[in-house]
Amino acid sequence: ARRTGDAAGTARFVRHRPASLLRHCGATAGSCAGEPAVAGVRYDASQRSSQYVTVRDGTRLAVAVFRPVSAGTPESSPLPVILVHALGQRPRDLDGRITADLGLGELVRRGNVVAWMEPRGFGASFGASTPFLTRQNGRDAADVIEWLARQPWANGKVAMYGLSNLGYIQWLTAAERPAGLIAINCDAPGQRRGINVQVLGQV
Q1: CA distances from 44 to 36, 110, 136, 156, 198 (A)
Q2: Do strands 60-70 and 73-74 pair parallel, antiparallel, or not at all (unpaired)?
Q3: Which bin fits 76, alpha (ψ -120 to 50), beta or left (φ > 0)?
Q4: Each residue's pLDDT tens digit, 45-76
Q5: Rounded CA gap, 162 and 195, in Å?
Q6: For 91-203, where are the alpha helices, taking DSSP H only?
Q7: Predicted confidence (pLDDT) per residue in 134-149, tens digit
Q8: What is the 3-state secondary structure of 74-109?
Q9: What is the largest CA-CA distance in the chain?
Q10: pTM of the complete model
């Protein structure tokens, strides 16, 4: 909960829905007892495709793309894209615990394309991995964002999403100012010396 005030200046508290990873009943709206489903769901499934994206130094990185499907047909109109960059392998579908906790299936059902990239040296991606995320990972994610923004099923607008290492990579990527990146939504990204980090009240 956080403290706020009304027009008369009277203090009151507003309870916020907890982060999806803390919701024992699931990340999808309506999955908690007594919680109403949120209107706006437009699609009933997703279609997964997987391919390599070649970044500026020639390294090929594996990316899984989940597009919204309605009545068995993928959406043909250009849609916004949400990129997830995680230190792990790409999901096979959006029904697993991690993807469900992140609410990725709901994002697709609401009319977004979700892309999940594997960092260099992880999973099917080529290249050498590092002990943790570096500026190289930020450059890689920036190149993938520019590739995503150019695809025929994308409307040119890409956002990033996630917490912990999924949040930290967003700061590294935003510093590269890739064309097409319009927003980041990071939670608990931590701090590492040598890059700008968030402070109370945003950046």
Answers
A1: 18, 9, 37, 24, 36
A2: antiparallel
A3: alpha
A4: 888 899 999 999 999 999 999 999 988 898 98
A5: 19
A6: 97-101, 104-109, 135-150, 165-174
A7: 899 999 999 999 999 9
A8: ECCCCEEEEEEECCCCCCCCCCCHHHHHCCHHHHHH
A9: 60
A10: 0.73
Q: Quick one: which of 42, 51, 44 has its CA closest to 80?
A: 42
For 134, other C-beta atoms within 10 Å of its C-beta total 17
Which of 95, 85, 101 has the alpha carbon at shortest distance from 184? 85
β-strands 79-85, 60-70: how paired? unpaired
Q: Which of 174, 163, 112 is nearest to 141 (CA)?
A: 174
Residue 5 corresponds to which tokens in the numbers above?
Answer: 């005030």
Tokens for 154, please give them: 């994308």
